[in-house]
Each structure stands twice: as C-alpha cells, then as structure tokens.
Design brief:
single chain, about 325 residues, alpha+beta, Cyclophilin, seven-stranded antiparallel beta sheet, seven-stranded mixed barrel, about 15% helix
Length: about 325
C-alpha cells in the first residue's frame, strides 16, 4: 500500500465515482463524476472497476506527491498536468516513480479532469458509493474538497523496468476518446424533446436556434446559460416532479439550466427536454464564457450513441486485459 499526499488542493478537487442509485426518494442527489465518460475511461485504462474512486479536478488542478510507484490515467480536460516539467499525456496509462509530484498549470481545454490510480483510492463507501456529496457533507474524503496535507492510501504498482533516472513513462495505447471531448468553439449538445405543457412553440423553436454563453454561476448542480432570454407568454411553475441529470429547465427569466450531477431530485420549473446521456459529459466540460448550441435528437438515436460508447468501453477494457 502506498500513499498520495496533497501538497496543494487546487479548486473544487473532490473524490468522485459513479452516481448514487436508489437514494433519490430520500432527497439525496445522485452526484458522482460530472463527466462520467472520462471517469470510466480513466478507470478502464488502469484496470479498475467503474465504481473505483477518481479525483475530479476542476479548472485549477491540485499538486500531489506519490510516495510509491503508481500507475495512473488522466482523462477529460487538459489542465496542464506536468511531472518534473514534462507534460503528462491524457487518455492513456502512465507510470510514475516513487516521489513523483503531479501538478497542474493553466487550464487549456475543458473544465474537469479525472485522475484514476490502479487499484483505486482508499476512501470509505457511504450508501454504497465513494462519491463526495458536498451538500450532505458525506462520501469521498469526509464529504469535502481535498485540502493541503491530506493523505490518501493508494495501491502501489511496480514501475516498469527502465533506468533509475526515468520518473515517468506512458503507454503508447491511446483511448479512442482522445478527440471525442476536445470541444470545438461552439459545441452542439443534443436534447430529446419533452416540453412541458405551457411552454409555447416559440420558446421551443428559439431554444435550438439560439447561441448561449455559459454563465459563471454554473457548477456541479447545473449549467446556467446566459444570452438572449427565451421570451414569450408568462411561464407558470409546474407541480414539482422528478428531474434527472441532463434535464433542461426553463426558469421564469427565460435562461435555460441544464442539470448536472449534483442536481436536486425534484423541480418545479417547466422542462424543455433531456440532454442525451452521451452529451452530458460534454456539458460538464464547458467553462464560463464558453458558447454552446442545442439540437433535437430522437430517443432511438440517443440510445444508439450511448450503446456505441458502451461497446467502445468494453473493447478498451478487453484490450487492457490482453
């Protein structure tokens, strides 16, 4: 067993895993990795199960020291990760020698990076899950962000046989998603239409013809969108009903909100639709002032795209085991 020491915490750095299932009836948010695709791929690259905890780094990454040889994978956003002034490649397995310090510079692309360590990170499961619930203050590491001085237990992985002065080596095998999450200047996110009664056709049409800007108030609860409001007849709040990750709500001010991992379990705002599951990770990678547009997608096409991801992930896991 090795150790990981947090030298500097970065910004909103937490332990995350998959969403908590079966707890919504208690008013508990599902939580989990905001970009579950990057979380799962990172775990797959180092041979971990999907539910192994990863470190979610947001915009400003932490500074971490490894007190044993480890195998890691870094997926998702490019936050300028480096070891000994050498860039750490994303979307592949990387071995670090004991004493290596992983640090992050300026965010280059995307908002959230996921660090997986072979064998997992030893944090207790709460309600069957290792994800941090920042509202309930449980899960992960004491239900909070990482702090300087925190020490986490991790599995040690023997460094491959190379000369002693080499601190880091990377696998040549790159996951197929290396380009998938590289966001273009104005990404288009796909939404399954499900407009509530009372949402007029004009607003529905305007939603997919408007370019929005990500509001600085966005967080793990939801992606808030600024820009021209979707104007029309007065919108009345609905009777509160269940919402899910990806639900697109329309508050009275006309500025849509796309619910993310830490969303509430019910909501009374009118709904425009549900973001396709395969596009939720792309929404979670948007940063304040990024621009975004939306397009409609059928349930069948949304399901087909998710099945394609699941197939590719299964092939990756088989290749790692080979």
């Amino acid at each position: 067993m090795g150790r990981l020491t947090v030298l500097a915490p970065g910004q909103w750095t937490t332990m995350q895993a998959l969403a908590r299932c079966g707890v919504a009836r208690f008013g508990i948010t599902p939580g989990g990795a905001a970009d579950v695709l990057s979380h799962r791929v990172a775990n797959a690259l180092v041979g971990n199960a999907d539910d192994a905890a990863t470190i979610e780094c947001t915009l400003v990454g932490p500074k971490l020291r490894f007190d044993s040889d480890v195998e890691i994978a870094l997926c998702g956003a490019d936050l300028g990760a480096r070891v000994a002034n050498v860039d750490v490649p994303r979307w592949r397995a990387v071995w670090l020698r004991r004493g290596a310090v992983l640090e992050f510079g300026m965010p280059i692309r995307g908002a959230r990076a996921y660090l997986a360590i072979a064998g997992g990170i030893d944090v207790p499961a709460v309600l069957g899950n290792r994800s941090t619930d920042r509202v309930g203050r449980f899960g992960g590491l004491e239900g909070r962000e990482l702090r300087a001085g925190d020490v986490l237990d991790v599995d040690s992985t023997p460094f491959p046989g190379v000369r002693d002065d080499v601190t880091m080596i990377a696998s040549p095998r790159v996951a197929a998603w290396a380009r998938e999450l590289d966001l273009v200047s104005t990404p288009v996110l796909r939404v399954v239409p499900r407009a509530h009664e009372g949402v007029d056709a004009g607003r529905v049409a305007a939603f997919v013809s408007t370019e929005f800007v990500v509001d600085a108030r966005s967080d793990r609860m939801g992606l808030r969108l600024a820009g021209p409001p979707l104007a029309g007849p007065r919108l009345d709040e609905q009777v509160s009903s269940p919402v899910v990750t990806g639900t697109v709500q329309l508050p009275p001010d006309g500025h849509p909100i796309v619910l993310l991992a830490d969303h509430q379990t019910t909501g009374g705002y009118p709904v425009l639709g549900e973001l396709a599951s395969v596009d939720v990770p792309r929404a979670a990678q948007l940063r304040p002032k990024d621009r975004v547009r939306f397009a409609w997608i059928s349930v069948e096409e949304a399901q087909s795209r998710w099945l394609r991801f699941e197939t590719d992930l299964a092939l990756l896991r088989a290749a790692v085991r080979a």
